[in-house]
Amino acid sequence: MVLFPSHQAATISRHVGPVHCVTYSSGAGQYILTGGQDRKIHLFNSSTTSHIQTYDAHGYEILSLAVSPDNSRFASVGGDKTAFLWDVATAKTLRRFTGHYARINTCGFNQDASILVTGSFDSTVRCWDTKSNASKPVMVWDEAKDSITSLTVGDGEVITACVDGKLRRYDLRMGQIYVDVIGHPITSVTETLDGNAVLVSSLDETIRLMDRTSGGCLMSYKGHKNKEYRISSTFAMVDSYVVSGSEDGTVWAWDILEGKNVVKETAHAGKVISTIAVHDGRREMVTAGVDGTVVIWRTE
Fold this sequence. Notes:
This protein is 0% helix and 53% strand. A 4-stranded antiparallel beta sheet has the order 1-28-27-26, with no helix packed on it. Strands 2-3-4-5 form a 4-stranded antiparallel beta sheet, with no helix packed on it.
């Protein structure tokens, strides 16, 4: 018996058009934030699925969301080329960070949310000081040769994924850049809880668990369809499983150590499932994609 949230417990239909990003609130994960092609961000109670708030300021699609550790603020990015910093309670924007030359695909906070990191189709990564009133980024990285698709912000480092097939790790303390070549366009990067490995999805329909120090591939996971879309992968049940959506409307889970597929479930009317979030404490998962619905999965 696999202890995994493979039961489709609820479906939320609030967006018009594709849903590009979902995330849980920090800590207990009482809330879910979703962002879509319809330029709207919605906040839901994850237990009752009741709608709490709509955040409406974007003029273009929303592609990524990041929540501060204290849940008082969140960031949203997308087609506007602008990063929005929101007050959760008032539903008002606190700051707007401009400087990218194309859509922003991904964003993330550092540990105290004093820095917001954004990655763009313009192939740059920018770091913004959320505490000061400075309008310019505190750092710009332009080493990438193509669109930045995903990033993860750790303690003193930022790892970025790029369509040029390279994973770049920026060590902020030492001022060093480390590059691992995957060789295929990368769509998603996530770090393990212990920080020793990263999970990398790419458009060769393979998810790789990479050793962070050596850059070697520890395990690979296959079976899902992923040749065109930016599909995210992540960990579940305290890094016991690797989870991903698929272009054929299936959700996959693999045993992290053996690489064996343990769950394959069809959802979202067979349409592309591009975004996924897992909350271990709640034994719960959220998926979304092209069909415009948000599905909450629980253990039965």
